[in-house]
Design a protein that fits this description.
Layout (H helix, E strand, L loop, with lengths): L6 H15 L14 H29 L11 H7 L8 H11 L5 H8 L5 H14 L8 H15 L1 H6 L1 H8 L4 H10 L3 E2 L3 E2 L5 E2 L2 E2 L2 H14 L14 H17 L12 E7 H6 L4 E4 L7 E2 L1 H10 L1 E7 L5 E4 L8 H11 L14 E5 L14 E5 H10 L2 E5 L2 E5 L4 H11 L60
Parallel strand pairs: 5-8
Antiparallel strand pairs: 1-4, 2-3, 5-6, 6-7, 8-9, 10-11, 12-13
Amino acid sequence: MEQVQQLSERRDDVAAAVSALAGIDAVLWQGGSEQLGPLFRQLDDLGRAVEAARVAVLAEAIERGETTKTMARAHTGWILEWAPSLRAGGAGQLLAVTRAATQQRHAQLREALLSGRVPVRAAAVCVEEMDRIRHRLTPEAVPSVWQALLSLAAEDGPRAVRRLRPALLARYGQAGELDRDQERAKVLVALSQPMHGGDGLFDYTLRLDVEAKTVLEAALGPLSAPRPADGVPDLRPAAQRRGQALIELVRRAVSCPGSLPTAAKATLLVTIGWQDLLAELGAGTTIASSDAGTLLGPAAIRRLACDAGIIPAVLGTDGQVLDLGRESRWFTPAQAKALWLRDRACTIPGCSMPAQWCDAHHLWHFADGGPTDLAHAALLCGYHHTWVHRHRLAGRVHDGNVTWDLTPGSYDSYLSELTRHRPDPPNEPGSGSGPGDHFDPGDDNGSGSGPGSGPDPADDPRSEPGDHFDPGSADPPQRP
Protein backbone atom coordinates (compact mmCIF):
# COMPACT_ATOMS: atom_id res chain seq x y z
CA MET A 1 0.00 0.00 0.00
CA GLU A 2 1.40 3.36 -1.07
CA GLN A 3 2.17 5.62 1.86
CA VAL A 4 0.54 9.07 1.73
CA GLN A 5 3.08 11.83 2.02
CA GLN A 6 2.51 14.05 5.02
CA LEU A 7 1.83 17.78 4.71
CA SER A 8 5.13 18.76 6.32
CA GLU A 9 7.02 16.60 3.83
CA ARG A 10 5.12 18.14 0.94
CA ARG A 11 5.96 21.63 2.15
CA ASP A 12 9.63 20.67 2.22
CA ASP A 13 9.34 19.44 -1.39
CA VAL A 14 7.65 22.67 -2.45
CA ALA A 15 10.43 24.69 -0.86
CA ALA A 16 13.00 22.49 -2.63
CA ALA A 17 11.23 23.10 -5.97
CA VAL A 18 11.29 26.86 -5.42
CA SER A 19 14.96 26.67 -4.59
CA ALA A 20 15.70 24.51 -7.63
CA LEU A 21 14.10 27.01 -9.98
CA ALA A 22 15.82 30.07 -8.54
CA GLY A 23 18.55 31.20 -10.95
CA ILE A 24 17.84 28.42 -13.45
CA ASP A 25 18.68 30.77 -16.32
CA ALA A 26 22.34 30.66 -15.28
CA VAL A 27 22.65 26.89 -15.83
CA LEU A 28 20.47 26.30 -18.90
CA TRP A 29 23.59 26.34 -21.10
CA GLN A 30 24.67 23.07 -19.48
CA GLY A 31 21.85 21.09 -21.10
CA GLY A 32 21.55 20.06 -24.70
CA SER A 33 18.91 21.55 -26.96
CA GLU A 34 16.96 18.31 -26.75
CA GLN A 35 16.41 18.91 -23.02
CA LEU A 36 14.70 22.28 -23.33
CA GLY A 37 11.35 20.98 -24.55
CA PRO A 38 10.97 18.30 -21.84
CA LEU A 39 12.02 20.82 -19.18
CA PHE A 40 9.43 23.27 -20.44
CA ARG A 41 6.80 20.51 -20.17
CA GLN A 42 7.86 19.82 -16.58
CA LEU A 43 7.44 23.49 -15.72
CA ASP A 44 4.00 23.48 -17.35
CA ASP A 45 2.99 20.45 -15.26
CA LEU A 46 4.35 22.17 -12.18
CA GLY A 47 2.39 25.35 -12.95
CA ARG A 48 -0.88 23.45 -13.28
CA ALA A 49 -0.16 21.60 -10.04
CA VAL A 50 0.51 24.90 -8.28
CA GLU A 51 -2.84 26.34 -9.43
CA ALA A 52 -4.68 23.22 -8.29
CA ALA A 53 -2.93 23.32 -4.91
CA ARG A 54 -3.84 27.00 -4.48
CA VAL A 55 -7.51 26.15 -4.92
CA ALA A 56 -7.27 23.31 -2.40
CA VAL A 57 -5.45 25.41 0.23
CA LEU A 58 -7.83 28.37 -0.19
CA ALA A 59 -10.89 26.12 0.08
CA GLU A 60 -9.52 24.66 3.33
CA ALA A 61 -8.76 28.13 4.70
CA ILE A 62 -12.29 29.34 3.89
CA GLU A 63 -13.84 26.28 5.52
CA ARG A 64 -11.79 26.82 8.71
CA GLY A 65 -12.64 30.52 8.81
CA GLU A 66 -9.03 31.59 8.45
CA THR A 67 -9.76 33.99 5.59
CA THR A 68 -12.10 36.12 7.72
CA LYS A 69 -9.67 36.72 10.57
CA THR A 70 -7.61 39.32 8.72
CA MET A 71 -8.29 43.02 9.28
CA ALA A 72 -8.35 43.55 5.51
CA ARG A 73 -11.20 42.55 3.21
CA ALA A 74 -12.57 39.13 4.03
CA HIS A 75 -11.10 36.33 1.91
CA THR A 76 -9.41 38.65 -0.62
CA GLY A 77 -7.25 40.26 2.09
CA TRP A 78 -6.06 36.85 3.23
CA ILE A 79 -5.25 35.84 -0.36
CA LEU A 80 -3.22 38.98 -1.01
CA GLU A 81 -1.38 38.67 2.32
CA TRP A 82 -0.12 35.16 1.57
CA ALA A 83 0.07 35.37 -2.23
CA PRO A 84 1.45 38.85 -2.96
CA SER A 85 1.97 38.01 -6.64
CA LEU A 86 -1.83 38.14 -7.03
CA ARG A 87 -1.87 41.84 -6.16
CA ALA A 88 -1.27 42.42 -9.85
CA GLY A 89 -4.54 40.60 -10.58
CA GLY A 90 -6.16 37.19 -10.33
CA ALA A 91 -7.23 37.12 -6.67
CA GLY A 92 -10.90 37.67 -7.55
CA GLN A 93 -10.93 34.86 -10.10
CA LEU A 94 -9.22 32.48 -7.68
CA LEU A 95 -11.76 33.27 -4.97
CA ALA A 96 -14.74 32.93 -7.31
CA VAL A 97 -13.77 29.53 -8.71
CA THR A 98 -12.79 28.20 -5.27
CA ARG A 99 -16.14 29.18 -3.80
CA ALA A 100 -17.95 27.62 -6.73
CA ALA A 101 -15.91 24.41 -6.51
CA THR A 102 -16.84 23.92 -2.85
CA GLN A 103 -20.56 23.74 -3.73
CA GLN A 104 -21.95 20.24 -3.95
CA ARG A 105 -23.63 20.86 -7.32
CA HIS A 106 -20.26 21.77 -8.86
CA ALA A 107 -18.50 18.44 -8.40
CA GLN A 108 -17.37 18.44 -12.05
CA LEU A 109 -15.76 21.85 -11.62
CA ARG A 110 -13.99 20.77 -8.44
CA GLU A 111 -12.53 17.68 -10.11
CA ALA A 112 -11.35 19.67 -13.13
CA LEU A 113 -9.60 22.25 -10.91
CA LEU A 114 -7.98 19.90 -8.40
CA SER A 115 -6.68 17.62 -11.15
CA GLY A 116 -5.07 20.59 -12.85
CA ARG A 117 -6.98 19.80 -16.04
CA VAL A 118 -8.55 23.28 -16.24
CA PRO A 119 -6.59 26.38 -15.15
CA VAL A 120 -8.18 28.92 -12.82
CA ARG A 121 -8.58 31.62 -15.47
CA ALA A 122 -10.46 29.32 -17.83
CA ALA A 123 -12.51 27.85 -14.98
CA ALA A 124 -13.58 31.37 -13.95
CA VAL A 125 -15.03 31.93 -17.41
CA CYS A 126 -16.86 28.59 -17.17
CA VAL A 127 -18.40 29.65 -13.85
CA GLU A 128 -19.40 33.01 -15.31
CA GLU A 129 -21.02 31.40 -18.35
CA MET A 130 -22.85 28.81 -16.27
CA ASP A 131 -24.22 31.52 -13.97
CA ARG A 132 -25.55 33.32 -17.04
CA ILE A 133 -27.27 30.37 -18.70
CA ARG A 134 -28.13 27.90 -15.91
CA HIS A 135 -31.68 29.23 -15.47
CA ARG A 136 -32.17 29.04 -19.23
CA LEU A 137 -31.26 25.36 -19.54
CA THR A 138 -33.42 22.32 -19.07
CA PRO A 139 -32.56 20.96 -15.59
CA GLU A 140 -31.40 17.56 -16.84
CA ALA A 141 -28.94 19.22 -19.23
CA VAL A 142 -26.85 21.01 -16.58
CA PRO A 143 -24.26 18.19 -16.08
CA SER A 144 -23.79 17.87 -19.84
CA VAL A 145 -23.30 21.63 -20.20
CA TRP A 146 -20.75 21.65 -17.37
CA GLN A 147 -18.85 18.87 -19.11
CA ALA A 148 -18.91 20.71 -22.44
CA LEU A 149 -17.69 23.97 -20.90
CA LEU A 150 -14.88 22.37 -18.93
CA SER A 151 -13.71 20.19 -21.81
CA LEU A 152 -13.55 23.16 -24.13
CA ALA A 153 -11.80 25.28 -21.50
CA ALA A 154 -9.13 22.61 -21.05
CA GLU A 155 -8.46 22.37 -24.78
CA ASP A 156 -9.09 25.84 -26.21
CA GLY A 157 -9.26 28.34 -23.36
CA PRO A 158 -11.66 31.10 -22.24
CA ARG A 159 -12.39 32.62 -25.64
CA ALA A 160 -13.73 29.34 -27.00
CA VAL A 161 -15.92 28.96 -23.89
CA ARG A 162 -17.60 32.31 -24.55
CA ARG A 163 -18.24 31.38 -28.18
CA LEU A 164 -19.98 28.15 -27.14
CA ARG A 165 -23.08 29.82 -25.64
CA PRO A 166 -25.25 29.84 -28.81
CA ALA A 167 -24.61 26.13 -29.41
CA LEU A 168 -25.43 25.28 -25.78
CA LEU A 169 -28.67 27.26 -25.84
CA ALA A 170 -29.65 25.68 -29.15
CA ARG A 171 -29.05 22.13 -27.93
CA TYR A 172 -29.77 22.27 -24.20
CA GLY A 173 -31.74 25.48 -23.69
CA GLN A 174 -35.39 25.78 -22.87
CA ALA A 175 -37.71 26.45 -25.80
CA GLY A 176 -36.96 29.74 -27.53
CA GLU A 177 -33.89 30.67 -25.47
CA LEU A 178 -31.56 31.10 -28.44
CA ASP A 179 -34.12 33.28 -30.19
CA ARG A 180 -34.52 35.41 -27.06
CA ASP A 181 -30.76 35.74 -26.72
CA GLN A 182 -30.44 36.94 -30.29
CA GLU A 183 -33.42 39.28 -29.91
CA ARG A 184 -31.86 40.96 -26.88
CA ALA A 185 -28.70 41.61 -28.86
CA LYS A 186 -30.64 43.59 -31.46
CA VAL A 187 -31.08 46.59 -29.17
CA LEU A 188 -27.28 46.89 -28.89
CA VAL A 189 -26.72 47.37 -32.63
CA ALA A 190 -24.90 50.66 -33.16
CA LEU A 191 -22.90 52.66 -35.69
CA SER A 192 -20.75 55.47 -34.33
CA GLN A 193 -20.35 58.93 -35.76
CA PRO A 194 -17.25 59.29 -37.98
CA MET A 195 -14.03 60.17 -36.17
CA HIS A 196 -11.53 62.18 -38.21
CA GLY A 197 -8.06 60.67 -38.12
CA GLY A 198 -6.32 63.84 -39.28
CA ASP A 199 -5.04 62.21 -42.48
CA GLY A 200 -8.13 62.45 -44.64
CA LEU A 201 -9.53 59.19 -43.28
CA PHE A 202 -12.48 58.60 -40.95
CA ASP A 203 -13.05 55.79 -38.47
CA TYR A 204 -16.41 54.20 -37.66
CA THR A 205 -17.23 51.66 -34.97
CA LEU A 206 -19.93 49.19 -35.99
CA ARG A 207 -21.63 46.74 -33.59
CA LEU A 208 -24.00 44.12 -35.02
CA ASP A 209 -26.10 41.27 -33.70
CA VAL A 210 -25.58 37.81 -35.20
CA GLU A 211 -28.46 38.12 -37.66
CA ALA A 212 -27.28 41.45 -39.05
CA LYS A 213 -23.69 40.21 -39.16
CA THR A 214 -24.76 37.17 -41.17
CA VAL A 215 -26.61 39.30 -43.73
CA LEU A 216 -23.73 41.78 -44.02
CA GLU A 217 -21.11 39.07 -44.46
CA ALA A 218 -23.20 37.33 -47.12
CA ALA A 219 -23.47 40.61 -49.01
CA LEU A 220 -19.81 41.54 -48.63
CA GLY A 221 -18.50 38.13 -49.64
CA PRO A 222 -18.95 38.33 -53.44
CA LEU A 223 -18.06 42.03 -53.63
CA SER A 224 -14.91 41.75 -51.51
CA ALA A 225 -13.38 38.76 -53.30
CA PRO A 226 -9.97 39.36 -54.95
CA ARG A 227 -10.27 40.54 -58.56
CA PRO A 228 -7.18 39.71 -60.59
CA ALA A 229 -6.99 41.35 -64.01
CA ASP A 230 -5.01 40.21 -67.05
CA GLY A 231 -3.10 37.72 -64.95
CA VAL A 232 -2.11 40.36 -62.37
CA PRO A 233 -3.16 39.38 -58.83
CA ASP A 234 -5.32 41.68 -56.73
CA LEU A 235 -2.83 43.09 -54.20
CA ARG A 236 -5.40 44.91 -52.06
CA PRO A 237 -5.40 43.69 -48.44
CA ALA A 238 -8.59 42.00 -47.23
CA ALA A 239 -9.55 44.97 -45.02
CA GLN A 240 -9.35 47.34 -48.00
CA ARG A 241 -11.43 45.04 -50.20
CA ARG A 242 -14.10 44.74 -47.49
CA GLY A 243 -14.25 48.51 -46.93
CA GLN A 244 -14.61 49.21 -50.63
CA ALA A 245 -17.26 46.48 -50.91
CA LEU A 246 -19.29 48.13 -48.13
CA ILE A 247 -19.20 51.47 -49.97
CA GLU A 248 -20.31 49.68 -53.14
CA LEU A 249 -23.29 48.19 -51.27
CA VAL A 250 -24.34 51.62 -50.04
CA ARG A 251 -23.98 53.14 -53.51
CA ARG A 252 -26.17 50.44 -55.01
CA ALA A 253 -28.80 50.90 -52.29
CA VAL A 254 -29.09 54.69 -52.69
CA SER A 255 -28.97 54.61 -56.48
CA CYS A 256 -32.66 53.58 -56.69
CA PRO A 257 -34.36 54.67 -53.42
CA GLY A 258 -37.86 54.74 -54.88
CA SER A 259 -37.84 51.85 -57.32
CA LEU A 260 -37.42 48.12 -57.40
CA PRO A 261 -33.80 46.95 -57.62
CA THR A 262 -32.86 44.63 -60.44
CA ALA A 263 -29.95 42.88 -58.73
CA ALA A 264 -30.54 39.91 -56.45
CA LYS A 265 -29.72 40.25 -52.78
CA ALA A 266 -27.03 38.29 -51.02
CA THR A 267 -27.60 34.54 -50.87
CA LEU A 268 -27.38 32.55 -47.64
CA LEU A 269 -27.40 28.77 -47.40
CA VAL A 270 -28.76 27.62 -44.05
CA THR A 271 -29.31 24.09 -42.74
CA ILE A 272 -31.90 23.30 -40.05
CA GLY A 273 -33.36 20.07 -38.72
CA TRP A 274 -36.92 19.22 -39.76
CA GLN A 275 -38.09 18.52 -36.20
CA ASP A 276 -36.35 21.66 -34.93
CA LEU A 277 -38.12 23.69 -37.59
CA LEU A 278 -41.53 22.27 -36.71
CA ALA A 279 -41.05 22.85 -32.97
CA GLU A 280 -39.16 26.14 -33.43
CA LEU A 281 -36.28 24.71 -31.40
CA GLY A 282 -32.56 24.32 -31.98
CA ALA A 283 -30.79 26.44 -34.56
CA GLY A 284 -29.90 26.69 -38.21
CA THR A 285 -26.29 26.78 -39.38
CA THR A 286 -24.94 28.91 -42.21
CA ILE A 287 -22.72 27.03 -44.66
CA ALA A 288 -20.71 27.62 -47.84
CA SER A 289 -19.75 31.22 -47.09
CA SER A 290 -17.08 33.20 -45.24
CA ASP A 291 -19.47 33.26 -42.28
CA ALA A 292 -20.02 29.49 -42.27
CA GLY A 293 -20.84 27.91 -38.93
CA THR A 294 -22.89 30.80 -37.51
CA LEU A 295 -25.90 29.59 -35.50
CA LEU A 296 -29.22 31.32 -36.11
CA GLY A 297 -32.37 30.75 -34.09
CA PRO A 298 -35.55 29.68 -35.94
CA ALA A 299 -37.05 33.17 -35.57
CA ALA A 300 -33.98 34.76 -37.14
CA ILE A 301 -34.13 32.33 -40.06
CA ARG A 302 -37.77 33.22 -40.66
CA ARG A 303 -37.01 36.95 -40.67
CA LEU A 304 -33.99 36.52 -42.94
CA ALA A 305 -36.18 34.68 -45.42
CA CYS A 306 -37.97 38.01 -45.94
CA ASP A 307 -34.86 40.11 -46.50
CA ALA A 308 -32.06 37.99 -47.97
CA GLY A 309 -31.74 35.33 -50.63
CA ILE A 310 -31.96 32.54 -48.05
CA ILE A 311 -31.91 28.97 -49.37
CA PRO A 312 -33.03 26.57 -46.62
CA ALA A 313 -31.74 23.02 -46.56
CA VAL A 314 -34.16 21.09 -44.34
CA LEU A 315 -32.55 18.00 -42.82
CA GLY A 316 -34.03 14.74 -41.52
CA THR A 317 -33.07 12.96 -38.31
CA ASP A 318 -30.06 11.34 -39.97
CA GLY A 319 -28.89 14.55 -41.61
CA GLN A 320 -30.23 13.71 -45.06
CA VAL A 321 -31.56 16.62 -47.12
CA LEU A 322 -35.36 16.43 -47.13
CA ASP A 323 -35.78 19.59 -49.13
CA LEU A 324 -33.56 22.22 -50.70
CA GLY A 325 -35.51 25.44 -51.03
CA ARG A 326 -35.40 27.77 -53.99
CA GLU A 327 -34.35 31.38 -54.07
CA SER A 328 -37.17 32.22 -56.51
CA ARG A 329 -39.94 32.12 -53.90
CA TRP A 330 -40.40 35.84 -53.33
CA PHE A 331 -43.16 38.12 -54.44
CA THR A 332 -42.67 39.15 -58.04
CA PRO A 333 -41.92 42.77 -58.99
CA ALA A 334 -45.50 43.10 -60.24
CA GLN A 335 -46.89 41.83 -56.93
CA ALA A 336 -44.62 44.16 -54.98
CA LYS A 337 -45.81 47.16 -57.02
CA ALA A 338 -49.42 46.10 -56.45
CA LEU A 339 -48.79 46.00 -52.69
CA TRP A 340 -47.23 49.46 -52.86
CA LEU A 341 -50.35 50.76 -54.56
CA ARG A 342 -52.75 48.95 -52.25
CA ASP A 343 -51.14 49.44 -48.82
CA ARG A 344 -49.18 52.66 -49.51
CA ALA A 345 -47.22 52.23 -46.22
CA CYS A 346 -46.64 49.87 -43.32
CA THR A 347 -50.02 48.38 -42.43
CA ILE A 348 -49.62 48.53 -38.64
CA PRO A 349 -51.98 51.23 -37.32
CA GLY A 350 -50.16 54.48 -36.63
CA CYS A 351 -47.04 53.68 -38.68
CA SER A 352 -46.38 55.80 -41.77
CA MET A 353 -43.22 54.15 -43.08
CA PRO A 354 -43.51 54.46 -46.90
CA ALA A 355 -44.01 51.40 -49.05
CA GLN A 356 -40.57 51.39 -50.63
CA TRP A 357 -39.01 50.86 -47.19
CA CYS A 358 -41.29 47.92 -46.31
CA ASP A 359 -41.17 44.15 -46.66
CA ALA A 360 -43.93 42.00 -48.14
CA HIS A 361 -45.07 39.71 -45.34
CA HIS A 362 -46.94 36.41 -45.75
CA LEU A 363 -50.04 36.69 -43.58
CA TRP A 364 -50.34 32.92 -43.99
CA HIS A 365 -46.74 31.90 -43.45
CA PHE A 366 -45.04 30.16 -46.33
CA ALA A 367 -43.64 27.52 -43.95
CA ASP A 368 -47.20 26.68 -42.95
CA GLY A 369 -48.32 26.20 -46.54
CA GLY A 370 -49.35 29.76 -47.28
CA PRO A 371 -49.55 30.96 -50.89
CA THR A 372 -47.58 33.83 -52.38
CA ASP A 373 -50.51 35.99 -53.43
CA LEU A 374 -51.89 39.44 -52.65
CA ALA A 375 -54.84 38.06 -50.68
CA HIS A 376 -52.38 36.78 -48.06
CA ALA A 377 -49.79 39.56 -48.11
CA ALA A 378 -49.24 42.88 -46.36
CA LEU A 379 -46.51 45.51 -46.19
CA LEU A 380 -44.58 45.84 -42.92
CA CYS A 381 -41.67 48.11 -42.07
CA GLY A 382 -38.58 46.41 -40.66
CA TYR A 383 -39.40 47.51 -37.10
CA HIS A 384 -42.95 46.16 -37.10
CA HIS A 385 -41.96 43.12 -39.17
CA THR A 386 -39.75 41.96 -36.31
CA TRP A 387 -42.52 42.82 -33.83
CA VAL A 388 -45.15 40.81 -35.74
CA HIS A 389 -42.83 37.79 -35.88
CA ARG A 390 -41.97 38.04 -32.22
CA HIS A 391 -45.54 38.17 -30.96
CA ARG A 392 -47.04 35.95 -33.68
CA LEU A 393 -49.72 38.39 -34.75
CA ALA A 394 -52.40 37.69 -37.34
CA GLY A 395 -53.39 39.99 -40.18
CA ARG A 396 -56.20 39.66 -42.71
CA VAL A 397 -57.10 41.35 -45.98
CA HIS A 398 -60.70 42.62 -46.27
CA ASP A 399 -61.82 44.55 -49.35
CA GLY A 400 -58.26 45.65 -50.07
CA ASN A 401 -57.56 46.76 -46.48
CA VAL A 402 -55.27 44.97 -44.01
CA THR A 403 -56.48 44.60 -40.43
CA TRP A 404 -54.40 43.23 -37.56
CA ASP A 405 -55.30 41.29 -34.44
CA LEU A 406 -52.76 42.67 -31.96
CA THR A 407 -53.37 39.93 -29.39
CA PRO A 408 -50.08 38.04 -28.83
CA GLY A 409 -50.38 34.56 -30.34
CA SER A 410 -53.32 35.48 -32.58
CA TYR A 411 -51.57 33.96 -35.59
CA ASP A 412 -51.74 30.50 -34.01
CA SER A 413 -55.54 30.75 -33.79
CA TYR A 414 -55.66 32.07 -37.35
CA LEU A 415 -53.49 29.17 -38.57
CA SER A 416 -55.74 26.63 -36.85
CA GLU A 417 -58.73 28.17 -38.62
CA LEU A 418 -56.94 28.00 -41.97
CA THR A 419 -55.76 24.41 -41.61
CA ARG A 420 -59.23 23.22 -40.59
CA HIS A 421 -60.46 24.30 -44.01
CA ARG A 422 -57.52 22.89 -45.95
CA PRO A 423 -58.33 19.34 -47.15
CA ASP A 424 -54.81 17.98 -47.53
CA PRO A 425 -52.12 19.87 -45.60
CA PRO A 426 -48.51 18.98 -46.42
CA ASN A 427 -46.97 16.48 -44.01
CA GLU A 428 -43.34 16.84 -45.01
CA PRO A 429 -41.16 19.15 -47.04
CA GLY A 430 -41.13 18.67 -50.77
CA SER A 431 -44.39 16.72 -50.77
CA GLY A 432 -45.94 19.11 -53.25
CA SER A 433 -49.31 19.00 -51.45
CA GLY A 434 -49.23 22.60 -50.30
CA PRO A 435 -49.47 25.82 -52.24
CA GLY A 436 -45.71 25.67 -52.90
CA ASP A 437 -43.79 22.62 -54.05
CA HIS A 438 -40.80 23.38 -51.83
CA PHE A 439 -40.90 23.77 -48.05
CA ASP A 440 -39.24 26.90 -46.68
CA PRO A 441 -38.22 27.68 -43.08
CA GLY A 442 -38.89 31.36 -43.81
CA ASP A 443 -42.47 31.97 -42.74
CA ASP A 444 -42.84 34.75 -45.25
CA ASN A 445 -41.19 36.12 -48.32
CA GLY A 446 -40.15 39.75 -48.31
CA SER A 447 -40.17 42.12 -51.14
CA GLY A 448 -36.67 42.73 -49.86
CA SER A 449 -35.20 39.78 -51.75
CA GLY A 450 -34.42 39.72 -55.39
CA PRO A 451 -36.41 41.69 -57.88
CA GLY A 452 -39.45 42.22 -55.68
CA SER A 453 -38.15 44.71 -53.15
CA GLY A 454 -37.26 48.23 -52.26
CA PRO A 455 -34.31 49.27 -50.08
CA ASP A 456 -33.77 47.26 -46.94
CA PRO A 457 -35.76 48.77 -44.03
CA ALA A 458 -32.70 48.32 -41.84
CA ASP A 459 -31.13 51.22 -43.75
CA ASP A 460 -33.80 53.56 -42.40
CA PRO A 461 -32.38 55.55 -39.46
CA ARG A 462 -35.75 55.56 -37.74
CA SER A 463 -35.84 51.78 -37.44
CA GLU A 464 -35.24 50.30 -34.01
CA PRO A 465 -34.71 46.56 -33.52
CA GLY A 466 -36.39 46.27 -30.14
CA ASP A 467 -39.73 47.29 -28.69
CA HIS A 468 -41.45 47.53 -25.35
CA PHE A 469 -44.76 45.89 -26.27
CA ASP A 470 -47.20 45.35 -23.44
CA PRO A 471 -49.17 42.13 -24.11
CA GLY A 472 -52.10 43.66 -22.27
CA SER A 473 -52.26 46.64 -24.58
CA ALA A 474 -54.19 46.81 -27.82
CA ASP A 475 -51.93 49.48 -29.25
CA PRO A 476 -48.87 48.60 -31.34
CA PRO A 477 -45.51 50.07 -30.34
CA GLN A 478 -44.71 53.29 -32.14
CA ARG A 479 -41.41 54.21 -33.71
CA PRO A 480 -39.25 56.58 -31.64
